[in-house]
Every structure is written in structure tokens, then in C-alpha cells.
Design brief:
By secondary structure, the chain is α/β, with parallel strands linked by helices. Helices cover about 25% and strands about 25% of the residues. The protein contains nine helices and 15 strands.
């Protein structure tokens, strides 16, 4: 089956690689445009575009998916569109172009966690199971008929990075099986149960800010959910501090939420609304990641100092 592949971030790389090496042909990869990045703001390719070029695939990076610009460029002859973490809506005119329609690989068990951040939201909510789903796309957000899905457990120490990698690996296999099933005519799509739909909006800066009035469990889940990006953060001595690893303890709180206590070589404790949480790995503003112990010694932290919700708090 001849396909046009739409993708952007790391999650799409393994599905593209497996599809490229299969009996199905990737005739074109459509990626997001290069964007300024880094201190020098030099144009930077998305991970998917970079990998597609390494594989020798033809790549198109339109600013928008407008019919006037793309219909003739895409042409005829391709049979299915494939969308994996593209980061943009596919318009109706484009959905209707290939005879087999558009297949989307989504990292959740639809209809749960429709939207841009299903992995992060599942971790923040303390879900124990997630998975991947392939659907035939329609013009609504992640609402198309389900083709296949597969479950995976969420481990207690999973971050968005580790869970996302497992889902990408599993999703690549499910995507290939889906295209095989479409081509053979043996795969039957089923409607999603709308009354069970939940949503996973993109993570905002407000979502990433740690509230020490939360329980230790909720804070620890947020830290894992936002690792490797964008990172959960707090403020200390007026500067932003990202927290990359933290562990819930059985130590009861002894002071106001956010107050630091029990500093040691392996980090320090912070009070929350429930038990204390041990801060393990941090990243000060403008610096690299480091152990909380190293940060504590370098900053000469004092017991009873507090993390805050803003630079002036």
C-alpha cells in the first residue's frame, strides 16, 4: 500500500522506520517546518523530518495544509494517509483524497485521553493502564472509528519518556498490522463510545508549576509526567528550579507545604499536603541537571527555607 506519512516528534520515528522497511511504501513524508531553536535561534528540523531525510525519503514541510498549495503537489497514486504525532489538524479535503482514508496512531486507549498530551495526562492522573489505538480519521479530534488497539501497563517509575518509548515501539507494530488489515479487507472499524471520552489538553506552564499544597503522590506523578519535557518546576530564592526526579516518603510533614527539611547526601525533603517528598534531581535556571545533594551543598540550603509558586512569592 502506498502511503503519505504525516509526523513531527520522536514518537513518530519508530513507526516511520518500521513502515519504511515493510511491504508498504512511504511515497512522501509531510513534516512541520523548521523552527528557530537554541541560544542562536538557528533553524532546527523536527526529529521526524531529520530521520526521514536520513532514510532517504522525500520530505515536504508546508506551513499549512491548504488545498490550493498541496492538492497538486500530493497528486494521485497514494492509497492511505498515516498520521503519527503530527501536531496539526488534517483538513477535510485532504482526508478525502486517499481511497483508504487516513489512519492515525494515538498513544492512548481511545476514547480516553483524546488530545495533545495523552501520555502526560495519564501519568499525572495516576492511571495504571494505557495503550495505543489506530483509527480512521474524521474531522473531529481523535474521534474516528477504531481499527485496532493494544494495552500496556504503566509502571510506578515510568516517566513520559520511558512510557512514550514503549508506546512508540508497540504503536509501530500496531500501525503495520492495521495497514495490513486494511489492505486485506479483513479489518472492521468500530465506533468510539462517546460517553466514555476524556480529554488530554496540551501541558501549559501553569500545569508544570508545582503546587506544594498538593499531596506528595500528585507532585511525584507530575514530575514523572513532565520528564523529559517541559519539566515540572518551582521557585527558590526568586529563581526557577526544575525538579526531574522525586520520591514519596513515609515521613509526615513537620512544617508548611514547600518547606525544606532533612538535607543529606542523597537530596532533601520538602513538606507537602501529605507526607514529605524527597527531591532527588534538579536543574537550576540556566544550568545543567544535578543531584539534589549537589545543589544543596552549592546553594548552602538552610532548613526551613521554602519553595514558592513565583519569583516574588
Amino acid at each position: 500500500m502506498k502511503t503519505v506519512f504525516f509526523g513531527s516528534d520522536e514518537f513518530a520515528i519508530e513507526p516511520l522506520e518500521l513502515l519504511h522497511g515493510s511491504i508498504h511504501e512511504v511515497v512522501l513524508v509531510v513534516g512541520r517546518p523548521d523552527r528557530p531553536a537554541g541560544r542562536g535561534l538557528a533553524p532546527s528540523r523536527t526529529p521526524l523530518v531529520k530521520r526521514a531525510l536520513e532514510l532517504g525519503l522525500e520530505v515536504l514541510q508546508p506551513e499549512s495544509l491548504t488545498e490550493a498549495e498541496l492538492r497538486e503537489t500530493l497528486g494521485a497514486g497514494w492509497e492511505a494517509g498515516v498520521v503519527v504525532a503530527y501536531g496539526g489538524l488534517i483538513p477535510g479535503w485532504l482526508l478525502q483524497m486517499p481511497p483508504a482514508g487516513f489512519v492515525n496512531l494515538h498513544p492512548s486507549l481511545l476514547p480516553r485521553y483524546r488530545g495533545a498530551a495523552p501520555v502526560e495526562r495519564a501519568l499525572m492522573n495516576g492511571a495504571s493502564i494505557t495503550g495505543v489505538t489506530t483509527i480512521i480519521m474524521d474531522e473531529r479530534l481523535d474521534s474516528g472509528d477504531i481499527l485496532m488497539h493494544r494495552e500496556v501497563p504503566i509502571n510506578d517509575d515510568d516517566t513520559a519518556g520511558t512510557l512514550g518509548n514503549r508506546l512508540s515501539h508497540l504503536g509501530a507494530q500496531v500501525l503495520l498490522e492495521t495497514l495490513d488489515g486494511i489492505e486485506s479487507g479483513k479489518l472492521v472499524a468500530v465506533h468510539q463510545e462517546e460517553d466514555k471520552a476524556t480529554y488530554a489538553p496540551a501541558v501549559s506552564q501553569a500545569d508544570a508549576l508545582i503546587s506544594w499544597e498538593d499531596t506528595a503522590e500528585r507532585i511525584e506523578r507530575k514530575v514523572r509526567a513532565l520528564n523529559p519535557t517541559p519539566g515540572a518546576f518551582t521557585y527558590f530564592r526568586g529563581k526557577r528550579l526544575k525538579i526531574w526526579e522525586a520520591k514519596v516518603t513515609d515521613v509526615p510533614p513537620e512544617d508548611e507545604p514547600g518547606t525544606i527539611m532533612n538535607m543529606g547526601k542523597e537530596g532533601f525533603l520538602a513538606n507537602t499536603a501529605s507526607n514529605c517528598i524527597r527531591v532527588v534531581t534538579v536543574q537550576p535556571e540556566g544550568r545543567q541537571r544535578m543531584s539534589a545533594g549537589e545543589y544543596s551543598r552549592g546553594q548552602r540550603l538552610l532548613v526551613a527555607e521554602r519553595f514558592t509558586s513565583g519569583p516574588q512569592a
